[in-house]
Amino acid sequence: MTTLFMRLLLAATFLAFSGIAAAEHEHSANEFEVFWAAEALHGTGQSHAGDDDPWLSADVLFGFTEHQFRVFGEYYVTTDEHDLERLQFGWEFTPETLLWFGRFHQPASAWNSQHHHGRYLQTAITRPFIERWEDEQGIIPQHITGALFDTRQSIGNGAAVQFAAGVGAGPAFRDEQYEPIDLLNTNPGRHRLAVSSRLAFLPEYEGANNAGLVFAHDHIDTNSPSILSRLDSHDAVLTLYGAYVDWVFDDWRVMATGYYVDVALDINTRDESFVSAYAQVERTLPFNLTAFGRVESSARMQESKFVALFDDRDGDIDIAVRREALGLRWDFLRHQAFTVELSHIDSLQQRSNEIRLQWSGVFP
Amino acid sequence: MERRIPVMPWPARLLTLSLLLASLPAFANERLVLIASVDSEVEQLDSLEIRKLFLGMTVTRNSGRLRPLLNDSDVQMRNVFLQNVVSMTDTVYDRRILRLAMAGETNLPPRYTDKAALLSAVAANKLAISYAWARDVERDKRFKILRTLWHD
């Protein structure tokens, strides 16, 4: 019944969007972009491509604004999956202050709240392991279904603070991965409370430079027999504290993020915690080239029973404790880029070297 | 020994003159102006509002959300707009507005490569804001000029 309702709601949204798009007038605006990417990967010691490496993907973004009312969605399609990643209905109370309802990306992810699923928007081909999505064996829940408040306020001299906070139902945990609420299909498992927030400082109100603090708190049900036997706990409560910076200095860009994650388990089981951090440096070069390098590192992930739950041993690398990556991106045409990335990974089980090639773009 | 001053043959002189003329800015004495429909209630926009507007952020007047329209009918005008209004390179500007759109914070400003279509769109929508060479709009009663964005 719920699924049928959501499908009808989605169909109504698409119909409204397409109808309104045809009859756009002065108080309305619509949005339609497709971010696509084709990727090739060769990795040593892996029998198949990673969960984050579809050879072809398309991320369809659609939106509609009528006065202060907004609808916004993101539908992601790959050769292996298709999913309505975001569907949000919002009201803009004052300029840049919105209250959204629906399924959204949790704001405590420094990387995903900037790039979402659009591969063309990120300079590197890969995202840091700690920022992976739920269906890629990501350790941090990334989708919440509920309410999201987002505001940007001027604080004088052209600077601003941005605050975003979301609350709602987080993912269930089944078969070595999280399962966030699916708006189109059934939702087995228990979806419990998730809270996530970000406070950022922007030296320019309209600029891209920002630095901030993030916090998330997720209740995860781990009551299934297979998980219970490995974790010895009926549930887990993840609390994430983090800080990040994303700054451009002339031709240089630095993105650095650090997370401390506390995993509270049942009273008879020892709690765990781990740290994960990454830093990516980019340098723009002549001829529309951008060189980049990223270092990812962690502490205490190898000892964590909770982290080990995500390693499905299906022939690819699910959890990296360290990674070094280097690459070069060439924006050879407007809205099209070619990228090569080399990386070395220390995972929970093995070491691997990888080379990736990607052709990405956005249409129109 | 007498030495003659070399004289350039006339085809070479013509070629040199053409190259000199071509190297002069084609937009000499040009002005890039911010325009709105003559029916628009917008009288003034400051530099920050203009920058926000063309990044797709919300700028309102009398509870109406202004609509930026990008004028891509002329390569030189696009370059002047990027350098002097949003202060970004083409690639950086594109990625910035795409990133804001991806975050659900903005709607991408529509692009017009046809000058007549752009001017019609501005004239027809009193919330639309765009930019054009002054020579194309200053005698056209459908528009008002809000400010000069750049002049030669």
Overall average residue pLDDT of chain B: 84
Instruction: Tell me the strand percentage band of chain B.
Output: 15-25%
- The CATH superfamily of chain B is known as Periplasmic binding protein-like II
Runs of chain B in which pLDDT lies below 50 for 5 or more consecutive residues are none
CATH architecture label of chain A: Beta Barrel
Mean pLDDT of chain A: 87
Rounded to the nearest angstrom, the distance between the terminal CA atoms of chain A is: 37 Å
Characterization of this structure:
The complex is a heterodimer of chains A (about 375) and B (about 150). By secondary structure, chain A is mostly beta strands. Chain A has a single domain, classed as Porin (Beta Barrel). Chain A has helices at about 1-20, 110-115, 225-230, 305-310; strands at about 30-45, 55-65, 70-80, 80-95, 95-105, 145-155, 160-170, 170-175, 175-180, 195-200, 210-220, 235-250, 250-265, 270-285, 290-300, 320-335, 335-345, 350-364. In chain A, the strands form two sheets. Chain A has a 16-stranded antiparallel β-barrel. In chain A, strands 8-9 form a two-stranded antiparallel sheet. In chain A, a hairpin with a 7-residue loop joins β10 and β11 (about 210-220). The longest helix of chain A has 21 residues, at about 1-20. Chain A starts with a helix and ends with a strand. The relative contact order of chain A is 0.14. Chain B is an alpha/beta fold and about 150 residues long. Chain B has a single domain, classed as Periplasmic binding protein-like II (D-Maltodextrin-Binding Protein, domain 2), CATH 3.40.190. Helix content of chain B is about 40%, strand content about 20%. Chain B is built from six helices and eight strands. In chain B, the strands form three sheets. In chain B, strands 4-7-1-8 form a four-stranded mixed β-sheet. A two-stranded antiparallel ribbon of chain B has the order 2-3. Chain B is globular and about 65 Å long. Chain B starts with 9 loop residues before the first helix and ends with a strand. The interface of A and B includes residues 90, 118 and 334 of A.
